[in-house]
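debug: dumping io for the single-chain case to check the tokenizer round-trip. Nothing else runs in this session.
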Amino acid sequence: MKKTRWRDVKKYKTYAKTDNKSPSKQIIYSGFWARALAILIDTFMILTPITVLIGIIFGYEALHNPETSPEAGIFQMTSYALITILFWHFFKGQTPGKKALEMKIVDSKTFEKPHLIQFIIRYFGYFISLITFVGFFVGLFRKDKRALHDLISRTAVIYFEK
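debug: decoded output
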């Protein structure tokens, strides 16, 4: 007999939702801090190699003085956006950080893989969340833990079962 832990019961009661397609399957939404940790992991695992590549291509000075080479910054932002969106699209809605924390991005209605356009809208929705700053914290007040960029793109971040 498996021992029931209070934190497991609490997590399922608070964040669980039954999937309409299979009544026995529970959908568990990912919370703010887990998603923040995933973004931190992604920053190191995706942005660090891009930054090293910029140092090799544009030189050491481009890393420390952006005014000398603005194309280096454009290359960095474009590369990060493209790689992140491609990870989401080709790797089941996961970046390395989300995979490490067993999370994935899904369509908020069907809980299936979102379309590529939803991933693109979601990425650019990050900027709206960043500009308003409150956009990232909207999920703290919602049962489904969706931030502003999730609401705009009609996506959700959930934990997946192995």
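debug: round-trip ok. The longest strand covers residues 103-107.
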